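In this supplementary section we document a worked example of the pipeline. Step one takes a protein sequence of length 578 as its only input; no multiple sequence alignment statistics are reported here. Step two produces a three-dimensional model, which step three serialises into structure tokens for compact storage. The input and output of this example are shown verbatim.
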Amino acid sequence: MNIQNLLSDKIKHAMIAAGAPPECDALIKQSAKAQFGDYQANGIMAVAKKMGINPRQLAEKVVAQLAIEDIADKIEIAGPGFINIFLKSDFIANLNELALKDSKLNLTMANKGQTVVVDYSAPNVAKEMHVGHLRSTIIGDATVRVLAFLGHHVIRANHVGDWGTQFGMLIAYLEKMQNENANDMALADLESFYRAAKKHYDEDEQFAEKARNYVVKLQGGDEYCLAMWRKLVDITMTQNIATYKRLNVTLSLEDTMGESIYNELLPKVVSDLKNQGLAVESDGALVVFLDEFKNKEGEPMGVIIQKRDGGYLYATTDIAAIKYRYEQLHAERILYYTDSRQHQHLEQVWMIAHKAHYIPDSLKLEHHMFGMMLGKDGKPFKTRSGDTVKLNDLLDEAVERAQNLIKNKNTELTDEELAEVVDAVAIGAVKYADLSKNRTTDYVFDWDNMLSFDGNTAPYLQYAYTRVLSVFRKAELAIDSDLNGNIELVHDKERSLAIRLAQFDETIVTVANDGLPHILCNYLYDIATLFSSFYENCPILAAESSNEKHSRLKLAALTAKTLKTGLDMLGIKTVEKM
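The serialised model returned by step three reads:
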């Protein structure tokens, strides 16, 4: 259940009954401090101003109309017209009971799930994934997991860069390697392969001419070139899928939607835009001029959709992609996980697609942009030599650091348990360090902070989960055991934990709507710290009565269930012990 929505509905009805207009908003927020209750209604002042009356008088009228005796213990009017709501402990406890019994934690599922296309990761063929792909991949995957959990039909779209003029060069070099029986060795390191191909292209005119010819043949459907192209794509994606698996990311080969699948659509899109009068010739190229975007001279900006040599651009492909996703995939919402530098490009593409009537206004288009990963020097994260950091090299270092750390902390783990813990902590730490930061901002990559067992880190949350499991092991009970009695919230630490557990629904709805995983991270950190305080102040196994013991075991079980579900939504593994 979503407490915020429940209170919003009830207070809005009371506001309307008190004379407020039907479009009024109660503006329900979780209270920042306990003395202001559990929730606050902050919408009275704005509505009172529109009505031309004193906000405190309106608040008094609203409270008089408010019927939430079964939910709230106390309602206060504060300041100029804030309404503070103190929830009943029995109401909170009942929500915890319902969540504990439900496999979906009593979260509000989508009544009619939307078809949501999520465009994320998007590596390039014949290049290894590097740290620049990390944010798109893991933030996009966290959003995908949340949406799917809530019952939406999610289509993962890995918009792989598998088409373009560079493939003539790559095919020519692959052919050279095969002729020299060195192709397997060369393709084991995709970066070296790409650099060697580029070097030959720049220095050998005969090779460059062959490469240019292969581009034309490839685009014309030549079988030999297509076979060589497929080999490059297959080798690249095999390596990428292995990286996704290592990252615990849900992308599979079936989710690959490379630029190549839109290739046949491009001439039709260009022709149609030209026929509609949207695309016009300018200096030999076909351009769509948008009055909504101005250049430095104040003139409409032009978006090139076909170069003078007949070649297409990213904009052309993205227009075709959005058309395809609406017409063929029946998307109702499309989320793009690319960095902030792509924002204007996407807005222009969307505008052209709307002007051409390829998509309706009802299709929700959202650019969930993100900032950059920075080193401690505040510059883009690089190796000491200044090279781009390969993603697998980063994960290798994380595993090595986690192994040294955990060996020093726990010598009782078996080799198998140690390997499982090291993998969960290493990969979880790298992912959580990113996911816990607001995606719209840059963040500083810091090994020491991310692998710490203190503070808002993956190891801290993973340890909190194992701490709950250890309580049940000592009690000789399974975590999903049926426990007698009801949850009773007597101690203030019990109540603080219980009400935060009951706010999981509100957190998940925000993440699903806005694609901001850091909100879920902050929530899980709250749960872990509140459980720690509860554990220290409220004896569980040494409780004074059987009812108290079972009540606290239920709170502990719900804590573990919430932590595990939340971490799974982030794509972070949990372990039984650490």
